[in-house]
Specification:
19 strands; five-stranded parallel beta sheet; alpha+beta; five-stranded antiparallel beta sheet
């Protein structure tokens, strides 16, 4: 396998413009002759399908939900980045580019990241035109707030439901194309294999999740936009249906899988309540604009809080350790996610955690300071220059409610605690995956005709994603990159004609799918799919989680291999293939997670450095920060499938070359 990133020559700021100017085109009268499959209808998939439909292609869009509106993109809360510089605080395309490169710990491609920053402003214009109700400031301009890892305000938001509003915008564009007959929507369908003909992606095998029917769908190109693989850990902030199957199936058909060990742990999640929990809840990073994170300075106070003998509001200000402000004064509570997560783990490991759960893991996110400060500001603006303490608190709470009200309501509904009165309890949890299918500058995988967009690819975030950049990447890929690069590929396909589905290649792919389904249904096992998924998640979190080391990673590789064998021998899947069968759906997905989990541990083991979300205990500096090895590990590790024994996978390297960026140790102090 040869990795050719196809990065254009020239100056960084000119690469994408010059490249677009020389891409091949498909004439409007020829586009109806071309079929395109889009798998996934979150922000990346819906925007790609809508854009390609608008251009005149025949598009088939697939989602396993009952509607594209249920894609996991809807769960994003805090905002979307763009270099508009509305706040006049020094932002620019270059600053967004540089912050993203630095935030990813210098493990991403320069050219891809600059393109992302370059098109970011167009995304906001597109979404405003669609009617996305971004927050606005007093003068009517779009409002911005800060996110981690930056010192400007560039995050556009719609209360605490930005993902939902952006997805509704993309869905409206998609629905218009469905209504015009240019996009054919397949709800409740799951892709279970990729079909290649003469080495090119020519279609998929999908299962109708309602009837169980196995279907063949052909196309001249296939776009995978199926999201990330965080649910390999079982507990994550991802929707419970989120999975890696589409991406993993194309990997097994020849698409390289890149940097699987790069996983983001989000610092602002509601802590685990108990062993029977199946889902974790994200509290938006935007809350770190207004909340201060702390634990007690004294262990005895932390112990008393866990025992229910002391309330956080009874801890005096001088007895609180605002550890992010102490350790990282330049960025404070708005350090990048991986930095904030490790700092929380360090405090809890040292015995200062405040949550009375099995692991005593939890810290406080406190809004009392912001309530007082904003209350004073609002009172002053209203002409009350000597407000009472009660008036200050009342006005401050109202200000907080306008900014974050739905998030506070969600927290109270889940925990039965009022975050206006009592600090939120938070702790890091698996949230996003920076790794994914390897793609070149065109977002094409190592399989010709198979493109990958959004979180499903690896391309833009390096070893750590900055907050509010996921929505940016998904929409950039779908609206402003894929329509150009896929058209460039399809320019050579206008004479191909309709791709038949009665070929040996489709027969072979369908037989693979049916064989796997029948094996699960006929397995005489004794344990549920969730039993094995939880065991896998336990191994992954404890040995391939926030902190890793050589011994544990080697143990994880062996334990997952053994668990995978046990899973296939002893899993019980009830029901039949020709009906709605959610246990069968889960079994097929967990089978892929088992293989991926082993590869993640292998990738983490070979990367003998710490960078971003990949923290190896053996490789840290004197202050506990990541210690990169730029001489030996400044590369993308792209794995080639080599049979069912995952330990035989072959790693290929794409060297990362920084021509326009000075590489330095990350410093947020």
């Amino acid at each position: 396998m040869k990795l050719d990133s196809k990065i254009p020559a020239g100056q960084l700021k000119d690469k994408w413009t010059d490249y677009k100017d020389h891409l091949k085109l498909v004439a409007p009268n020829n586009r109806p002759k071309i079929d395109i499959i889009v798998v996934g209808t979150g922000l990346a998939g819906a925007s790609a399908a809508a854009s390609l439909g608008e251009m005149g292609y025949n598009v088939k869009a697939f989602c396993f939900q009952d509607s594209p509106r249920r894609a996991h993109s809807i769960a994003a809360q805090g905002g979307i980045n763009a270099a508009k510089n509305y706040q006049n605080d020094g932002d620019s395309i270059y600053r967004l580019f540089y912050d993203t490169i630095k935030g990813g710990d210098y493990r991403s491609r320069e050219a891809n990241v600059y393109r992302l920053a370059e098109v970011s402003g167009n995304i906001i214009d597109q979404c405003v035109a669609q009617g996305v109700p971004f927050a606005r400031e007093y003068g009517g301009m779009l409002d911005n707030r800060s996110f981690g890892g930056v010192q400007v305000k560039r995050t556009f938001y719609a209360a605490g439901q930005t993902g939902q509003q952006l997805l509704l915008g993309a869905y409206s564009a998609l629905s218009r194309q469905i209504g015009l007959g240019r996009v054919q929507m397949y709800n409740r369908h799951e892709m279970l294999d990729l079909v290649k003909v003469d080495g090119k992606a020519r279609g998929i095998i999908a299962r109708n999740l309602i009837t169980g029917e196995i279907e063949r769908h052909s196309a001249h190109a296939v776009i995978i936009a199926s999201g990330g693989y965080g649910n390999v850990y079982f507990l994550s902030t991802n929707a419970m249906g989120s999975n890696v199957t589409a991406a993993w199936k194309i990997h097994k058909q020849g698409a390289a899988f890149a940097n699987p060990c790069y996983v983001q742990i989000h610092p602002t999640c509601i802590p685990v309540h108990g062993t029977n929990q199946s889902k974790l809840t994200l509290m938006s990073e935007s809350l770190r604009n207004s909340g201060r994170i702390w634990v007690p300075k004294k262990k005895e106070d932390a112990e008393a809080i866990r025992a229910g003998k002391l309330k956080p509001t009874q801890i005096a200000e001088e007895d609180r350790d605002y550890y992010l402000e102490r350790r990282y004064p330049a960025f404070g509570n708005l350090v990048p996610r991986d930095v904030a997560s490790r700092a929380a783990k360090e405090r809890c490991d040292a015995g200062y955690g405040i949550e009375a759960n099995d692991t005593m893991e939890g810290v406080y996110l406190d809004f009392s300071t912001e309530i007082k400060n904003k209350g004073k500001e609002v009172a002053y603006a209203q002409g009350n220059h000597e407000p009472s303490e009660e008036e200050i608190v009342t006005l401050g709470k109202k200000w907080i409610e306008e900014k974050y009200g739905n998030l506070f309501a969600m927290y109270e509904k889940i925990t039965d605690e009022n975050p206006y009165e009592t600090p939120m309890k938070i702790y890091p949890a698996v949230h996003y995956t920076m790794g994914g299918v390897w793609v070149d500058y065109n977002l094409q995988s190592t399989i010709p005709g198979c493109f990958v967009a959004g979180e499903a690819n690896f391309s833009d975030h390096g070893a750590n994603r900055l907050g509010a950049s996921a929505l940016m990447q998904g929409l950039a890929d779908g609206y402003f990159v894929v329509p150009y690069t896929v058209s460039n590929y399809l320019a050579d396909e206008i004479r191909t004609g309709k791709i038949p589905t009665n070929s040996p290649e489709f027969d072979e792919a369908e037989n693979r799918v049916k064989e796997q389904i029948n094996t699960f249904l006929n397995n005489n096992g004794s344990k549920s799919v969730d039993y094995f998924h939880k065991k896998l998640g336990h191994i992954m979190w404890n040995k391939v989680g926030m902190e890793r080391n050589e011994e544990d990673l080697q143990l994880a590789i062996n334990e997952i291999a053994k668990l995978r064998e046990e899973f296939h021998n002893d899993v019980f899947v009830p029901g039949s293939a020709d009906e709605l069968n959610t246990e069968l759906e889960k079994a097929l997905r967990v089978a892929d997670f088992m293989e991926l989990g082993q590869l993640m541990a292998m990738d983490a083991l070979q990367r003998k450095e710490s960078c971003g979300g990949h923290f190896r205990r053996e490789y840290q500096d004197a202050e506990g920060e990541t210690l990169r090895d730029d001489e030996n590990f400044s590369f993308v590790g792209a794995w080639e499938y080599n049979g069912s024994d995952i330990s035989k996978e072959i790693m290929h390297k794409e060297e990362l070359k920084y021509e326009f960026t000075k590489i330095a140790a990350r410093n947020y102090k």
